[in-house]
Specification:
alpha/beta; binds guanosine-5'-diphosphate; seven-stranded parallel beta sheet; Single alpha-helices involved in coiled-coils or other helix-helix interfaces; Rossmann fold; Helix Hairpins; single chain
């Protein structure tokens, strides 16, 4: 199949959803020729990117992410936004998707023409975040979506990654999670711009209020980050549609402040630099792996490292010693 980049660009920019879906598939492809085409497409679209609000949402399976994104997403649409959601694919075992993996996630949003939902591809994902997620964000922006939600699941590394590509990071917590605020959760808490205690309704309401206080206490003892707004903890019931406006107002209000004083631009600038560095690392690794003799060498060295015969440092040095950076 030949891919006409110009036609794809035109379709995507004109708001053709199939065009966007096709472009995303191209971006996610690992084939070398596809990567080249994807690079061309991205360059052509780059001037149209960067204008959306990028929001990361994380939380353990069952915390209510898909229910929250569905309710919050509808709220955004009702305010006149166009929304794209890069969602966890529940069918992927590695993504730790919803425990109710067989249900259709975000049922209402998925049929709304103002919303575009893309499950992250399985296999490539790190807790739901693929290496290409940043590029997917850019494509959605070029297609005219002004709000992009990136969903991920509480497995540590993926949070750091998502945090490095969004303007605001929302951490969803269960009403009874307050007393488990340790370890990895605390690490994630440090990344959060907003903590939302979910399911603050019915029998859970009391516990949710306690969780709110617990989180506020935990945050109180954390060093505030001068580059960000103070972290807020909020209650929400996605089922009863309570707390959605408060989350919306806080989120956008904070971003407005950060934009006005230049902190948002600074965050994005740092993110672009970081992206460049990690992209460079990734592409260098790809280059090595594409070279048959290197591949063999690396595998041999890997074996030695695994057996404890050679130190990882020495093995890496041996690989690098054989690289002629001016090749091809
Ligand atoms: P995810 O795995 O994080 O995407 O969680 P889900 O959105 O699938 O929700 C997990 C369970 O929590 C489901 O049974 C939901 O019905 C329930 N749930 C989600 N949001 C709420 C809420 O606001 N209130 C209550 N009571 N239950 C909720």
């Amino acid at each position: 199949m030949t891919i006409d980049i110009q036609a794809l660009e035109t379709a995507l920019v004109s708001g053709d959803r199939r065009g966007l879906a096709k472009a995303l598939t191209l971006i996610e492809s690992r084939r070398a020729d596809h990567r080249l085409l994807a690079g061309k497409l991205l360059s052509a679209l780059y001037p149209r990117t960067g204008r959306a609000t990028r929001i990361g949402i994380t939380g353990s399976p069952g915390v209510g992410k898909s229910t929250f994104i569905e309710a919050m997403g509808r709220f955004f649409l009702d305010q006149g936004h166009k929304l794209a959601v890069l969602a966890i694919d529940p069918s992927s075992p590695r993504s730790h998707g919803s425990i109710l993996g067989d249900k259709t996630r975000m049922e209402e949003l998925s049929v709304d023409p103002r919303c575009f939902i893309r499950p992250s591809p399985s296999g490539l994902s790190l807790g739901g975040v693929a290496r290409r997620t940043r590029e997917c964000v850019l494509l959605c922006e070029a297609a005219g979506y002004d709000t992009i939600i990136i969903e991920t699941v509480g497995v540590g590394q993926s949070e750091t990654l998502v945090c490095s590509m969004v303007d605001a990071f929302l951490f969803l917590q269960l009403p009874n999670a307050g007393d488990q605020l340790q370890g990895i959760k605390k690490g994630i808490l440090e990344l959060a711009d907003l903590v939302v205690v979910t399911k603050a309704d019915g029998a859970f309401e009391q516990a949710a209020r306690r969780a709110l206080v617990d989180h506020e206490m935990a945050l109180h003892y954390m060093q505030p980050d001068p580059d960000r707004m103070p972290v807020r903890v909020m209650l929400c019931s996605a089922l009863e549609k309570k707390g959605l406006r408060e989350v919306y107002d806080t989120l956008l209000g904070n971003l407005q402040t950060l934009q006005a004083d230049g902190r948002l631009q600074k965050r994005r600038q740092a993110q672009r630099e970081e992206w460049f560095e990690s992209e460079l690392q990734g592409q260098l690794m790809d280059l090595l792996w594409q070279d048959r003799s290197f591949k063999k060498d690396i595998q041999k060295l890997k074996g030695k490292v695994a057996q404890g015969i050679m130190s990882p440092t020495e093995a890496a040095q041996q690989v690098i010693a054989g690289v002629d950076l001016k090749r091809g």
